[in-house]
Structure formats: structure tokens, C-alpha cells
Amino acid sequence: MQGNKSMKKCIVLMGIKHCGKSTQANFLSEYFKIPSFDTDDLIFELTGKTPRQIYTELGEEGFKNAEKSACIELKSRLEKIQQTENSKKYIAVAATGGGICNNAEAIKLLSEIGILVFLNADERTAANRIVKEVKIDVDGKLFNLPAYIAKENPRTISDVRESFHKFYVERQKIYRSICNICVDMKNAPKSENRDSIIESLSKTE
To answer: Does some domain include residue 148?
Structure first.
């Protein structure tokens, strides 16, 4: 891709886990007739491991490296799409992992190729979605938790909610500081939230 203008044609969706990134990426892909990508999927394609497995085995730095590699791969794929879709306003949409806001190198790459859209989810809604996925083994230990909560070793659902609250507040500040657009996700039909994203994008044109 040549020039800064052409480097801004990807809609990059960001936000905490369960804010609706993957769902909205699919909606926007269908609406704009453009391909949809997911950095977590790209990580798996490149490594054969899920983000959670990489985080567990290699730690935070190992995961950040994998996430950066996924963003490099995304940029490469967009360059190929750009060669045939140069006339389109947007050439792709990409959903990112919930913790990508703490990966400065990945954010730099994404800011070069796209418009960073922060999907601002209500804390209670996001927390309920995380709690819904929690499982308890025969010894009463909680598992199937996001890595950033699991490392806090929560013993109860109340602990999970408390840990999530701290991360929610922290990540809200970071995402607001790095995004180009902030869209409040409503407790409404998914198509209504899609329309809010599209409306916010139109205001940047």
C-alpha cells in the first residue's frame, strides 16, 4: 500500500472481552462487503495454539510477541487486498484481543493500517458474560477464566467480579486514550449497535 490514506482502510475493533468485537466484525463485513479478520484467529494460524495456551506457556511477553506477529500478518494481507480493492472506502474489518491495548507495538501497527474503534461495553454486561463461562472442578477450583483474571487466582465468583472490575477501569482508560472512535455498546439488538458504529465511522469521513 502506498501513502498514509490507503493505510487507514481497515476498521479495527477494540475493547474488553465480550464487548461484541467478533459479532460486530461479522456484521460490518456483511454490510460493507469486505473480509473480516480476527487477531486471535491469526495467532492460531501462525502458531497452532490458542492465545490462552500461549499466555499460559510463554507468559505475557511471549503472548505479546505472538500478537504482534498476528498484526504483521494482518498488515500483509491487507496490502494484498488493497491491490484489487483500492477504490473501496474500507477494505477489511478486524476484531482484536481484549488485552491488545497493553501491547504498544501491536497498537502501533494497527494504527498504521486502520481506524481504531473502541466498543465501550457496560461493565455489568461484560462481567456477566465472563461469569457465565466460568466452570468449577470437583475440588471447587474455578477455571475457563480470561488469563488476566486467572492469574489473580480467584476463589469465588465474587472474586472474579472484583478482579474484572479493576481491569475494566484500567482498560477503559487505555482504550479511550488510543482509539480514534468510541462507540457505546447498548443493551439492544446487535444490529442497532452495528448502526451506531457505522454512524460514528461516517462522522470521521
So the answer is: no
